[in-house]
Design goal:
30% of the residues lie in helices and 23% in strands. With 484 residues, the protein is α/β, with parallel strands linked by helices.
Length: 484
């Protein structure tokens, strides 16, 4: 696929990094020549220096035969105008714009073909806020990703000594709870002086303390799965009540607003360094949200505000180093769990799952929304995992036994690449492509066995330890007149 990316900032670089590795033809437009040279030296892509709202610059980037435009420059106005020019002058089929302002969401007059002609609006801050909200709902999780409209989830958790899932083989765990719709799809194990190593899961695999375990399960079983990884049966869960947010920028404000929509559930404090911003926060948030002016790495301030009683400390400033340091300090002073917003992937790789429980990249939080537009076939959801190395993919089986390589066939007969793991199947979802759908039935989450046959309109969720395997899965699910 030929793709133009407008903007070589943090989001643009993360998008380019992910898409280049999938053998796409990428061109990046930016006004900063030095930044483009750096990108060209690191990735197999082409840079074009200039303003992306100028037709001549888009033409130089190859807009005439481009399949997808991703406008993720710093200014909303630039991204919107670029999409409109791409439609009017070059007829680029798909146009995605990063827009921070919430005023454009859901207004077809503004973003539709007669307006700015945006097929999809992406807001990294909003994606990030939604994702952090899921981590608050499941405090024992390191990652939570949804599929099939939330009916199924992929979660990862750190295995703790004494937890029920630690010690027995996966086969023994299946025998203990055969009725539970769940499947372990990957383990990442840390060895001395080495990066986490992928461990394939089979019936003889044992979970060891410290493993990061990825599990696909029906939504209603997620809490039970995490509990079995994280704590002994006799230990009661500790819900998140007291939350401290370091940084009152766009993400911090959005998150505080979201949490405050449930009065009485959370006790929220925000620490912000700039006095003027503190005034803005205090006026924009409910009175029960406490806004404090001060340095997020001030040990005395954290101590005075009872950091040892905080269930979740969130470092959400624009500075990676400040977020790392404030999280390390909060953890040392007694905060139960800490999350750091980290833009640099190398920093996130070093810190995730160590003294910092969760290292979260803003670009990675929204990358799946973009990837779903790039994928071939009927891909419904894509989630980038392990800082972009692995991927979870939801794809719909279409056609019949004559036109499809998967429909009507047993799982054991599918020609899947090695290490690609079918985690679960969601069956019975309404088919949006069917103009005359039949009688509706209650959707069910199925854990596939070797003899399970895939039906048309099944939503199949895969775990791929390396996203270079994506094309093989997409090719397998492609519908044709006949494949014989």
């Amino acid at each position: 696929m030929k793709i133009i990316i407008l903007g070589a900032g943090r989001v643009g670089q993360s998008v380019a990094d992910s898409l280049v590795s999938e053998r796409n033809d990428i061109t990046v437009i930016d006004t900063d020549a030095a930044r483009l040279r750096d990108l060209e030296s690191r990735f197999d892509l082409r840079g074009v220096v200039g303003n992306g709202i100028e037709p001549a610059v888009l033409a130089e980037a190859g807009a005439e035969d481009t399949d997808l435009l991703i406008a993720c420059a710093a200014q909303d106005e630039t991204n919107l105008v670029c999409c409109k020019i791409a439609q009017l002058m070059f007829n680029i089929p798909k146009r995605i714009a990063r827009v921070r302002s919430g005023g454009f969401q859901g207004d077809e007059r503004l973003v539709g073909p007669e307006g700015f002609a945006v097929d999809r609006i992406i807001c990294p801050e909003e994606s990030l806020t939604r994702y952090i909200g899921k981590l608050i709902d499941y405090p024992e999780a390191m990652q939570v990703r949804e599929f099939a409209g939330g009916r199924a989830c992929l979660v990862s958790g750190r295995a703790r000594p004494g937890a029920p899932m630690v010690g027995p083989t996966i086969g023994e765990l299946r025998e203990r709870a055969p009725e539970m719709a769940m499947r372990m799809v990957a383990i990442y194990r840390r060895f001395a002086d080495e990066p986490d190593r992928f461990i394939a899961c089979d019936g003889a695999t044992r979970i060891e303390p410290g493993d990061e375990v990825f599990v696909l399960a029906a939504h209603e079983h997620i809490a039970q799965v995490l509990a079995a990884l994280h704590r002994p049966v006799s230990q009661q869960p500790q819900p998140v009540r007291r939350i401290m947010i370091a940084g009152g920028g766009g993400v911090g404000l959005r998150l505080a607003r979201q949490l405050a929509q449930t009065p009485g559930r959370f006790h929220i404090k925000i620490i912000e360094d700039h006095p003027d911003r503190c005034v803005e926060l205090a006026s924009a948030l409910p009175s029960d949200v406490l806004v404090l002016q001060g340095d997020t790495t001030d040990e005395d301030l954290l101590g005075d505000e009872g950091i040892e009683e905080v269930d979740l400390f969130l470092a959400l400033t624009d500075d990676d180093e400040d977020n790392i340091m404030s999280c390390l300090l909060a953890k040392r002073m007694g905060a139960s769990r800490v999350l750091a917003l980290i833009n640099r992937r190398s920093y996130a790789d070093l810190m995730h799952g160590t003294q910092i429980d969760i290292a979260l990249s803003p670009a990675q939080a929204m990358l799946g929304e973009l990837l779903a537009y790039v994928r071939q076939g009927d891909v419904q959801a894509v989630h980038s995992l392990r800082r972009g190395v692995a991927e979870a993919l939801e794809i719909v089986a279409r056609g019949d036994r004559k036109s499809s390589k998967v429909v009507g066939r047993k799982v054991s007969d599918l020609q899947l690449p090695r290490d690609v793991h079918i985690g679960l199947i969601v069956r019975g979802l309404p088919d949006a492509s069917d103009p005359a759908p039949g009688p509706l039935r209650e959707p069910e989450v199925i854990i596939p066995r070797s003899a399970t046959a895939i039906e048309s309109n099944d939503h199949v969720v895969f775990f791929l330890p390396n996203k270079r395997l994506v094309r093989d899965v997409e090719k397998l699910f492609r519908v044709s007149a006949t494949f014989f």
